[in-house]
Amino acid sequence: MATKTRIKERQPLVIPTPKIVEDALALAARYRNVDALRRHAVQRKPLLQGASAVLVLLGLGCGAGVFVFFAGSGGWVALPAMMLSPIVALGALFVLFYVFFSWVEARALAKALGHRTGRASALETWLRRKARIDLLARPAVPWLPAAALVALPLALLVAAAPPGGIVMILVAVATPVVYARLDAA
User: Which one of 6, 64, 100, 105 has the lowest number of neighbouring Cβ atoms within 10 Å?
Assistant: First the structure.
């Protein structure tokens, strides 16, 4: 008796991903495939490498903020804090790099078009006039992940170690401003 064996067609594996992951993959593809954007990044390679080093420091600071806050509060939460801090650090790195490189892409677009991509705020106008720092565009910020993985851990770091936390916040604010100033020079 002959039996028919059915060979099922292989269906591609579909893994549901959050929108931010899809956006980050699309951003990476644009940096890889769009010649003008790739050229823009290559011309600013030392600036981008310096900013990337600062972003790594900020991401590690976010992870440290979670660890220092919870491990310093009591003995039983030290283990969960130790397990959570690397996850927070990796998530913060992801968000920081996504926001920064989407901002660099928006700056490249604004430079290519010869104008900014949105209305300038009062602070941006003041920076452009007084300090010759033109931010050109605002980054695309995923607010919920940014709040959970960057702002909250930095706030915890300020609560646990105020000098270190304040320095990290100042570094986070200064990074795009310094990048924009050095990029204009």
Answer: 6
CB 92 within 8 A of CB 59: yes
| Dihedral over alpha carbons 69, 170, 92, 156 (to 10 degrees) | 20
Determine the length of the chain: 185
Q: Could you report the per-residue pLDDT of 27-59, keeping only the tens digit for each?
A: 999 999 999 899 999 999 999 999 999 999 999
- Token pair 């600062």 in the structure block, residue: 54
Where along the chain do its domains lie?
45-184
Tens-digit pLDDT profile for residues 92-121 = 999 999 999 999 998 888 888 776 556 777
SS3 107: helix
Query: Taking Cα atoms as reference points, which of 92, 98, 97 lies closest to residue 64?
Result: 92
Which pTM value belongs to this model? 0.83
